[in-house]
């Protein structure tokens, strides 16, 4: 009988115990793939937006935890930097619509007519203009949830805004965003003249060295207040994104420890019940290393089965979350292949760690003593 088939048959000999152990591994893998997948999805969606629009550099206020607001008057100074093609000042806030189970809806204040609007696919109505006054554009997802279309009005924190258009965007977060003219959001937030940051588009053909020079020149405008980075690096270094991924791993690690202990317990119990069988295998010529490989093989095989179930469960869980109104505008339902690979690697690791001690104990069994037991 082939060695792997022999290990597989041994796993199936104790169906209930193997099923429960595989479930503990599945929970650990599902936690990693789902939680880390959602957290990395935020980062991916932000990067997709900036790359889709063509934004090269982000300039925000310096701050250890929260970036400080910047003065909108810096727009002209940044435009004057050599190599800069366009500067888009932006202000961000958030609102909620409890009646629709929407607890966090991003508000983006952008100058009408800038490049950011060019990539939007208008589904109904039109784009914003500087003459619109209290008007907004709704992302596709938030428009569907609020059941609004062009021509309707929407109440945002007690103020009525006219919906002039509904748009589709690059990322799930953008589709769940409300966009208004920056001066209207400044008035709404009582932050006249302030911006959250600047999105900067470099001239065509700018090299990597050229982008770094632009960053240095922008920061030189006010070194104590301005922090400029490449758009991708800014997203990856964003405290909220890093914290989200870190918390996902911390939470998942608890499930991994539980899965490892379950595997260790299962393999130790299996070893105690199979002392005579192992003695017989040693008596017919099996080496210590082959016995160890058998125990480790069974442990890893059981973990892989649990890992596959966990990955499928994670995809199902994330897909279910996308249908919840409160999460619809933040979770795309896509999980990166890298995260899936990490989940399966963890499954293999759980199998190795959980089977290592039983495998070592099995190699120490003397054939004669094992047969007597």
SSE blueprint and pairings:
Elements: H1 3-12, H2 15-53, E1 57-61, E2 70-71, H3 74-79, E3 84-97, E4 102-110, H4 115-118, E5 121-125, E6 135-139, H5 140-146, E7 153-156, E8 159-168, H6 172-175, E9 178-181, H7 182-189, E10 194-195, E11 197-202, H8 208-221, E12 226-230, H9 231-236, H10 239-273, H11 275-283, H12 288-321, H13 337-363, H14 367-372
Parallel strand pairs: 4-9, 6-8
Antiparallel strand pairs: 1-11, 1-12, 2-10, 3-4, 3-11, 5-8, 6-9, 7-8
Helix pairs in contact: 1-12, 2-10, 2-12, 2-13, 10-13, 12-13
What does this structure look like?
- The chain has 373 residues and is of the alpha+beta class.
- The chain has helices spanning 3-12, 15-53, 74-79, 115-118, 140-146, 172-175, 182-189, 208-221, 231-236, 239-273, 275-283, 288-321, 337-363, 367-372, and strands at 57-61, 70-71, 84-97, 102-110, 121-125, 135-139, 153-156, 159-168, 178-181, 194-195, 197-202, 226-230.
- The strands form two sheets. Strands 1, 3, 4, 5, 6, 7, 8, 9, 11 and 12 form a ten-stranded mixed beta sheet that branches.
- The protein is elongated.
- The model has no long low-confidence stretch (mean pLDDT 84).
